[in-house]
Structure formats: structure tokens, C-alpha cells
Amino acid sequence: MKIDRRGLLLAGLLAPAAAFAEQFAGKYQPQAQPIGEGIWMVRGADEAIGFANGGAIANSAIIATDAGAVLFDPGVSREHGLALGALAQRLTGKPVGRVYISHLHPDHAMGAAAFDPAIIHALPATRAELERDGEGFSDAMYRLLADWMKGTAVVLPQGDLAGGSTQFGGRPFRLLALKGHSGGDLAMIDERTATLVTGDLVFHDRAPSTPHASLPDWRASLGVLAGLPHKVLVPGHGPLDRDGSAIAQTRDWLDWVEQSLHKAVVDGLDMSEAGDLPIPARFAALKAARYELQRSVSHFYPRLEAELLPKL
Fold first, then answer.
1. Cα end-to-end span (Å), the chain
2. Burial of 127 per CB tally in 10 Å (0-12, 13-18, 19+)
């Protein structure tokens, strides 16, 4: 049998996944942190998506209502969503009655596979982006996470949300239809506790990710969030924000990345050199800072070079 170079490469890629599958005994064990009356935060790992963490890196929120629990962001896989649903039932005494998806990224959205599509809601832009990119995300997650993803299919949310006041099970919420981290970013205020849940519009002590970012739109959304009275903030990644610092921290990082990469292009640095730029001391506490800087270089550098370098 003749094995070509492509076959050898594929064998090398698939062998680790096969080894993981043989020894796989992983189980999601999400933990809840009470943050107000009938509301809990579930922390994700402050890491990149990887097999060791099962992709459970995004924060979620669980809220008790008379009609069932509200789950804001259902996790990365069907098994993750099921674990979050079971946790919600233990905390509230009721099954999940409504799921909100903040945006398209798989660590926040693909756990929807655990729930009836009729109870899953998102902004119209988020549904459209999942229609466009969902299958590609699914392929990538299966390659990265192997058996963690078993049974996970792309489930599209009802793209029926708009900004404004709403209620579920007698509990009032204010929905915010924003964008910037992606083309559609849902945030929410639980009116009973003045808790602001932001999805990935806000990161806290963890460097922001930018694969679908529009920085002008993101800054505008941060301005909206900063103007909303709230007691605590549940970010998309990182610890609960009790002192109001996370919005400014997110803006500061985005501003620094944009300015630094602009200067790097003008100074003639290549992408590898830009990814090795020194990170300011004020960002020392941010998890995954080098990782996200290097990702942002790949997201922004080609466009910046096209805009800033002379045409030959």
C-alpha cells in the first residue's frame, strides 16, 4: 500500500484524537456562584479552548423564575449544556425554561444542542451568523475536543430578540441588542438584582478575543454598558466584576492592541514580530494575554497592512 504525504499528515493529526477517545472519561462539573437573589454565575476556565478543559471556558448565568430557569449562554457542547441544565434544576428546583445565546462563538452557543430549539433565543444577527459559520465551528470543535463533543449538532436559536424590557416567569429583564465583539451581541440586565450580564462584550482579568471584532462598534457598545446602572457584572470570561472596572479594562486592552498593531505595521514589523510585542505591566493580571495578542495579530494585520503600506 502506498502512503502519500497527505496520508501521513492526516494520520499524525488523527492519532492523538484516537488516543484521547480510547482513554476518554471526561465529565463536565460546572460550579455555581450565587451573586444575588435567585441568580448565579457559572465560571469558565480562563484558558484557550482545549481538550483538557473540554472547551468549558465561557461564563454562564442561571436565573430562577416561576416558569423555569433562565440560562444565559449554554456552553460549548451538548454534554456541557446538559450539565448546565442539571445544575440549573438543582439550584432553582425547575428545569431550564428559556435559553439566551449572547453571540455566535462556539464556547457560548453550541451547548444549545442540549435544549428544545423552541426555548432558545438570540438576536437576528446571531442566528444569521450561526447559519453562516455554525458548521465550520462544529468541525473545528470536534477536531479540538473529540469525545467532549459527542452528540453535538448545530442548533439555531430563534432569531427573535430585540432590545427593550421583557419578562419571563414573572421576572423582569432588560435586553440590550449590541454589536462589536461580533455582528450581534446580546447583553441583559436582571432588573431584580441589577446584575448586568454582558457575554463577550466584556472580559475581566482575561484578555479579550477578537476573531469577528469591529473595534469601533465594540467601543460604542462598551459606552452603552458603562452608562447602565448596575451592582455587579457577569463578563463573558473572567471573574465577577464587583467594582465596575471590567468595562474600562476591556476598552483599554482593545485600544492598546489597535494602536500597537497600527504602529507595528508602520514600523515594518512582520506578523511574528508583532505577536512578540511587549505587553504593558498594567495588563499583567490578564490571563491569556500573549495568546490573544497573537490571535489579534492574525485577525487585524492583513487589513492594516493593506491600508497602511504603500502600494507597489
1. 49
2. buried
Beta bridge partners of 309: none
Domain CATH number, residue 106: 3.60.15.10
Instruction: Identify whether the C-beta of residue 174 lies closer than 8 Å to the C-beta of residue 164.
Output: yes
Is residue 268 one of the residues assigned to a domain? no
Rounded mean pLDDT for each run of 10 residues along the chain, 312 residues in total: 40 42 72 98 97 98 98 98 98 98 98 98 98 97 97 97 98 98 98 98 98 98 98 98 97 98 97 98 96 98 93 74
Please check whether residue 20 lies inside any domain of the structure. Answer: no
Range of the domain at 204: 28-244
Q: Where are the alpha helices (DSSP H) in the chain?
A: 5-23, 78-92, 106-109, 124-145, 215-226, 246-266, 271-275, 289-308
d(CA 275, CA 176): 34
Number of neighbours of residue 34 by Cβ within 10 angstroms: 11
